[in-house]
Batch of 4 targets.
Target 1
Amino acid sequence: MKKKFGQNFLINGQIVNDIIKKSNINEKSEVYEVGPGNGVLTREILNKKPKKFLAIEIDKSLQAQLKNLFNKQNYQIVFNDALHFDETFFFHKNAIIISNLPYNISLKLLIKWIYQLKYKKWYSEMFLMFQKEVADRIIAKKNSKKFGRIALLVSAFFKVSKIMDVKKENFFPVPRVDSSVLHFELLTKPLFDIKDITKLELISRILFSSKRKKLKNKIQLLYNSDLIIKNNLSDYYDLRAENLDTETFYKMAQLL
């Protein structure tokens, strides 16, 4: 285990069992696990005998500890960096992603998987553990100070619910913060066209910059006066980004 990889291994078996129970993994499931670490979650996944299982681990010092778990033809572990690994070669649709995500790359991985939907809908659900503070930002709603870019992007494509909070004492080494497990369910009909996700990310980056400032100057930066008048965008001049509902963000993104 190497500190630079941001690894904090879950050691509470009851919490592991609760996560697996919620995931409903069965013999028809195709499962992708990021960061199996000491294998505590991996073993419970394998006990469900999924149809296909792929795990990815960056820490090659764990190779001897983990390799014996992968003794079936459709079970495979890859020692690589998940940020630069293309999972779409291994899965076609309806895979389940499950992970106690490394804290230092959790949001980068989530955004990567969102962008992959632009080319291939290879998964249908994700069960992911984040730092509690990050999880709270992901599920934040309009008029909350925690509502920001990541909540906007996620809510366009997923129904997200919190499964549980996990105290820091349930990990080794003990991290500085508590964690939360979130369930992401891919929407049958996305609220925004995934092909235009770069527009949505651009609008969110600009409008959520300097969050305490009102939107007048930002809107005038993004749109010419004709578009502002035609679409009544001046109605939002005295608001802050956190006060806009998601439909307004989608509309403004499409106007770019």
Target 2
Amino acid sequence: MPARSSTIQQDLWNLPNILTMARIAVIPVICVLLAIDKPMAGVAAAALFGAAAATDWLDGYIARKRALVSLTGKFLDPLADKLLVMAVIVTMVAHDRLPVWFVTLLLAREMSVTGLRALAAAEGLILAADWGGKWKTAFQLVGLVCLIIQYCYTIDFGLFSLDVRFDRVGFLLLLLSLLYSLASGWGYFRSFLRSIEERAAPPSEVPSPEGVDPG
């Protein structure tokens, strides 16, 4: 659906963009709760993070349903997503919940893909998201929720109970997310190279119809 023509001030106060800005506004609260490093603070931070992540789907749904898609929203929505995830991850590194190498690889991938998309846009090319990016996002969000909860909790399944170390489960999911992230980044790079090669290739000669003398 094409973006509506309207002013930035009007766009900022439509419902989808209000939800997006609320997602940005809650980031400092989540980071403060993470810094407290106590079980109840972790549960509260996980709940806020989950609610903020849910608004990513909700604002897009409302924008499409009510024809409120705007250029402002197209800029704010991915920005809010990246700010939310990166703020939480950097805070976790500061409190020794994630290793530095993990964040370095993740940031390198995000910056590379963002730069590649900008270069593709300048060349009039569109790099569509692939299946790897969707799996990356799913593993990343669930993994971050588990890592925010952090502590070991006993979960009762009825017939048996299980002690779950949420920090270990979260880190495993984030590792899977990183693998999918790097794979999807390579997919973007291959798609870009393929598009450039197709544009540079000379048009194929169209054969003359059978039995017709072209001269």
Target 3
Amino acid sequence: MDDVVGRIRQELRQNADETRKKSGERFFKEDVKLYGLTMPAVDRMAKAYYEEIRQRSTHDVFALCEELWRSGYLEEAFVACNWSHAIHREYQPEDIKVFERWVSEYVSNWATCDGLCNHSVGDLLAMYPTLVGDLHRWARSENRWMRRAAAVSLIVPARRGKFLDDVFRIADILLLDADDLVRKGYGWMLKAASEAHQREVFDYVLRNKAVMPRTALRYAIEKMPPALKAQAMAK
């Protein structure tokens, strides 16, 4: 085990809070492993330790991230997400396979899914747009977190008006998904896209509202004017 990872774990244990741990466990429907630290505290820790590794190669940083992911602890996963995003300017197209493996093998709740995909995967797609095709495959996965990842990876680019066609294609694939967290994920993706393409997203919702799960629909129209919301929600 790398010394920096060992010292992070020692600091996490030293600052563990049993009350916060139990509160955090109740926050998730899934079983989660927690030390019991606040996310701002974990973020400060991640940034402080990153100063020690910032000169290392992308390969070495990813290896440290993988070691953190393997522990199964939420706080360690957030450190890994912080570090993998910190080196985003060094990304190469093949890094999509690294992120796909992390989602497939280590992600086990919505928080780590979103923490990785909103930023690391989203920035990778912004740098190499042709990789978005991989998300269409993720959306068809049997793994619920891969399916949610297909949607939430587009949140930040979609807010900037990018990948609209892919947003709709992924929404089509996930439209009738039985998993509530996947529904929320693609609804959130549509909401993000509506910030730059309100009319297009509204038209999409109207075309599909007869079958779109209410959870996804409500997310999709959340930022729209009241008149459009009323029209979308009307029976």
Target 4
Amino acid sequence: MTSVQEWDTDTLIRKARQGDRVAREQLLVRHRGRLRQMIAFRLDPRVAARVDPSDVVQEALTDASRKLSEYLKHRPIPYYPWLRQLALERLVKLHRRHIQAQKRSVTREEDWLPPLPDESAVELADRLGAAGVGAHAGGTPVGRLLREELLRRVRTILEQLGPRDREVLVLRHLEQMSPREMSAVLGISEGAVRVRHLRALQRFRQLLHQAGQSTGEEAS
């Protein structure tokens, strides 16, 4: 007999729609770890000093529990992107409350995402093949200077990418989302997701190469 822990998300959804209370409970906690990681990657340090990512996740899961029956009826998008959107809405509200209170020009939450924190920017660069970017985190003055310089370069590259390219790289390489999930989040086809990701990756590597050449010229 298959245990409930081994059921995949689609099976849990089917059983939850049939009224299985255990499946419904498992569905709500299934992606807790992924949600926490997403929040941790995007949580501004100024907010992180006051808010634990687990608390944000718990609030999102409370929202999900209240809205799950309606979701199960219609399933407008795949389950994890739906759950993630609830957590992201919580995150956006937190950032607005703590550090964006004066910025009222943004009318929709999806029009604004929290800037990627420094640690996450470095982690993204490492995962994209910028070897050694995250290796200079030592506590010595020289180590700190090296880290600041590397972080400056990474920030410049990510800003040059533009928000769309930057976000597709974050979704794929930090959040480890599948093309199907990214398609639901970005509102484009899976084919378009793959094209956008490839172009963003190529652009990142091109900018990284140019930054390396520029640094070499300054040192010579």
